[in-house]
Amino acid sequence: MRDAVMSALSTVNDPELHRDLVSLGMIERAEVEGGHARIKVNLTTPACPLKGQIEREVREAVLNVPGVEAVSVEFGATVRPAAQPALPGVKHVVLVGSGKGGVGKSSVAVNLAASLAADGARVGLLDADVYGPSVAHMMGQGAAKVTANAERKMLPIEAHGVRFLSMANLSPAGQALVWRGPMLHSAIGQFVKDAAWGQLDYLVVDLPPGTGDVQLSLTQNVQVTGAVIVTTPQDVALIDAARAIDMFRKASVPVLGVVENMSYFVAPDTGHTYDIFGRGGSRKLGDYPLLGEVPLETGVREDADQGRPAVLAHPDSAAAVALRGVARTLAGQISVRAMHQDLASLPDQLTVV
After folding, report:
1. 104 is in an annotated binding site
2. pLDDT average, residue stretch 147-173
3. pLDDT (tens digit, 9 = 90+) per residue, 106-126?
4. 103 is in an annotated binding site
5. What residues bind ATP, as annotated (predicted)?
6. Whole-prediction pTM value?
7. Structural domains of the chain in order of their starting residue, each with its CATH number
């Protein structure tokens, strides 16, 4: 009966990769005992955005096998690394950037990292905004200090299941850093290469606004999987977001998608929706995936001020739901790219959508 179950599973496609689970090697276990089929599917990311669909289709396919009366579906996950790993032990580096400040880029980066970690991924977060670091405060670790191990490598601080580094944990509180480009370049190099990040599925990097030294240092010294652009809907933000996209294009960094932050506001007393900054403006940036539209909510700001990512503090809020959706869609985009590389030699080429 196991052969019949495997045959049934070969009719179930991964919705993003458009190939069946069997040929993709995603069926880790298929056992049948007394009419009860137990299936374990090894996903390409623990933050798979379509896990529910896969589970439903696996159940339907296996229940059609004669003699099968019940189906249990279990999931595991193995994040496939990029063709050229970014850093030792780090499978993917994802840059979160914007063309200007004030669009909520750091808040998005923190919540992306926390959401991926909550789904079971091993996640690091690098605050590369050296002049205006805010990640430590948003993670509730503003007073913590970075230490070193026996090999004199910096040990990331851990909070909310995420390992992170920020200049805020290395310099005295409130002290301004007055550095020229070479010092900045050296600091970024130490953050990425002289830190004991350990084994990570994703290293999320919160970039400073603009298109300056930090962006150049990272793209020249680290193999980056891709970038996420954060913008608000109004034209003044979109103009600068387009410049950030152009910078990544010139640096040969794929843009994985766009996050439209503060996309709309729902009045808590009336439920009426207001497009304070306009809405849907991110679609003007070109043919890039829209990873999500995140509403403007006071709770996101309050959670950040209290050092708690909104996706963990208030997971049922509209903003948290949108941010979790962004994280899972992003993880799916990364999986598609990694699997495309793995399947490049197969006869039917994978079409990235």
Report:
1. yes
2. 91
3. 999 999 999 999 999 999 999
4. yes
5. 99-106
6. 0.90
7. 2-77 (3.30.300.130), 90-342 (3.40.50.300)
